[in-house]
Design goal:
This protein has about 475 residues and is mainly α. Among the domains are: about 1-100, Tetratricopeptide repeat domain (Serine Threonine Protein Phosphatase 5, Tetratricopeptide repeat), CATH 1.25.40; about 105-200, Serine Threonine Protein Phosphatase 5, Tetratricopeptide repeat (Alpha Horseshoe), CATH 1.25.40. The protein is about 80% helix and about 0% strand. It has helices at about 1-25, 35-45, 50-65, 70-80, 85-95, 100-115, 120-130, 135-150, 155-165, 170-185, 185-200, 205-215, 220-235, 240-250, 255-265, 275-285, 290-300, 305-320, 325-335, 340-355, 355-370, 375-385, 390-405, 410-420, 425-435, 440-450, 455-465. Residues about 1-10 have low confidence and may be disordered. Pfam families: TPR_1 (PF00515), TPR_11 (PF13414), TPR_16 (PF13432), TPR_19 (PF14559), TPR_8 (PF13181).
Length: about 475
């Protein structure tokens, strides 16, 4: 019976929405009851038509001035449009009339969050929970969703967990926990939540697909393939699962199988330039530069703005020692995506191999500007300077790197150069700092400067550190 009532309501709202839209065209306002206005506003908001939803809410309030649901809908619309002060007026009215309506306090809390007043928001959310009347799990879920809107994902997750604790079968909380734990890199818990969600909704192909993505990120490639295959079993038209099976196969080093899967995907989407790029990468990993370039060029012919394809051809030209052509293609990739630090790093390496030292330094410098946390850029920059006899320049660059990048590898590299330059006192100071930060990386120092293993003084510094005499 409940399903029948829901169907009737959907049909009523659908008919009411048609009548409302025709009234907008004719310019003649029509009468609707409160529930119809509420449904019209909801539908228009779902369609992304904020202007029409605002008109509907205004008309509803004019006809039904004491209808709290319409005041709340209007406040929600105003908040969506950034009209926070106006929204407060309608929330104030709703709170005066229905102080025990949790939706009032939820919306006020959301408004406070958007305006940057987290303490006031949490006070409002606490009120919503207090008057929840058995719907506490849903309220906690909506509080979490409000924190998602302002980008506080960790806070959102804590509320989703509280909702799930109260109601272990809360599917929305489960799904969002799965999704957002993935976003913060907590793959173990994401997998756990997706599997729990699938236990309740085993035929949800989107959940299977997302689970496959997380398995792939967690380097569980066989599990990822299995999840994508379930996706296809449920929805054979969800062809992106084929593409992602190719990704999982490639990530596990099964490049020939990956190529077959990408080609299978291309039967359904023949102009997908990204698929040709991935095939090109697979052939590159199989040391077949000819077929690799062919597929990268195919991607470029489909989409001349595919920076990955230009970069891929640049790598092939680099391998073939065709440095000028390599630089040309990498520059095309950079023109499309100037913020990709790997492009700048590779441009620097190729320029260095071509003995264009000034160009190499410019590329490293720009790469470091784009992404100071890319440790390899700084290390390669220093190596290039060392290779060209500029030891002092390498020391200066590494010190600059350390100011901008909190990676102990930079300090250990600096120690090696200082030791090689007989600046032992300064080297040992940096060594102590590096060991304090990350002692395990000391093996990197021994790898790049084996003579350190024979130094009695260095061994004493390390032993003193181990004993705690820092």
């Amino acid at each position: 019976m409940n399903e029948e009532r829901d169907n009737w309501r959907e049909e009523d709202i659908s008919e009411a929405l048609k009548r409302f839209k025709s009234s907008l065209v004719s310019g003649r306002a029509k009468y609707f009851d409160v529930s119809e206005f509420e449904g019209i506003v909801e539908q228009l908001m779902e369609e992304g038509d904020l202007q029409s939803s605002e008109i509907a809410a205004k008309q509803g309030i004019q006809i039904h001035p004491n209808a709290v649901p319409l005041h709340l809908k209007y406040a929600q619309i105003l908040l969506s449009k950034g009209k926070y002060d106006q929204a407060q007026k309608y929330l104030d009215f709703a709170e005066r009339v229905e102080n025990t309506n949790p939706d009032v306090h939820l919306l006020r809390g959301s408004a406070s969050l958007i305006m940057g007043n987290e303490d006031l928001a949490k006070a409002s959310f606490k009120k919503a929970i207090k008057v929840g009347n058995g719907e506490t799990d849903d309220i906690l879920y909506h509080v979490g969703s409000a924190f998602v809107q302002i980008g506080e994902i960790s806070e959102a997750i804590s509320y989703f967990k509280k909702a799930l604790k109260l109601n272990p079968k809360h599917e929305l909380a489960l799904y969002d926990l799965a999704f957002f734990t993935d976003q913060i890199g907590d793959y173990k818990n994401s997998i756990k939540y997706y599997n729990r969600f699938i236990d309740y909704d085993v035929y949800n192909y989107s959940a299977w697909f997302n689970l496959g993505i997380v398995y792939n990120k967690a380097d569980m490639h066989d599990k990822a393939i299995e999840a994508y295959e379930y996706t296809l079993a449920i929805n054979e038209n969800f062809h992106m699962a084929l593409f992602n099976i190719g990704n999982a196969l490639a990530n596990s080093g099964r490049f020939k199988e990956a190529i077959d899967k990408y080609r299978e995907f291309l039967e359904f989407d023949p102009d997908n330039d990204d698929a040709y790029c991935y095939i090109g990468e697979c052939y590159l990993n199989l040391d077949d530069q000819l077929l690799s370039e062919h597929n990268y060029q195919k991607a470029i012919s489909i989409n001349p703005e595919n920076d990955t394809a230009h970069f891929g051809v640049g790598l092939i030209m680099w391998i073939a020692k065709k440095y000028d052509r390599s630089i040309d293609y990498i520059n095309k990739a950079i023109k499309i995506d100037k913020q990709n630090s790997e492009y700048w790093l590779t441009l620097g390496k190729v320029s260095s191999d071509a003995e264009y030292l000034d160009d190499a330094i410019k590329a490293y410098k720009q790469g470091a500007r784009v992404d100071a946390e890319n440790t390899e850029i700084w290390l390669t920059w220093a190596e290039t300077l060392m290779k060209n006899g500029d030891t002092n320049g390498a020391i200066r660059i590494l010190k600059k790197a350390i100011d901008n990048n909190d990676d102990s590898m930079l300090k250990y590299r600096l120690v090696a150069i200082l030791l090689g330059n007989r600046k032992r006192k300064e080297a040992y100071e940096w060594l102590r700092s590096a060991m304090l930060q990350d002692f395990e990386n000391i093996n990197y120092l021994f790898d790049i400067y084996p003579r350190a293993l024979k130094s009695k003084q260095l061994k004493k510094v390390v032993d003193d550190f181990r004993r705690g005499d820092k």
